[in-house]
Known about the structure:
It contains 3 helices and 3 strands, in the order ααβββα. By secondary structure, it is an alpha+beta fold. Strands 1-2-3 form a 3-stranded antiparallel beta sheet. Helix 1 runs antiparallel to helix 3. It starts with 7 loop residues before the first helix and ends with a helix.
Amino acid sequence: MSSKKIDVTRLGRLAKELAEFDGSTEFPNVVNRLKQKEGLRFRKTDSGLHFASMSSVVGKSRRSEEDALRNWANAARRAMIREGR
């Protein structure tokens, strides 16, 4: 995670949105919206590690972009806890 100031309100909103739609048929639409409107980016390394980054928080997974995004939401919640929320 970078040293940029964390917007905990934004993190909370994004993590909540992901949790509400995780596993639903709307999840791909939410991911597309996050890419277009919130700056969600995915990256895959040559070794097969997937990264999801948004709002100065990164999640990673060896399995898939979807799992990296779930891990992003977990990392966002931990960042919120560290910031006192």
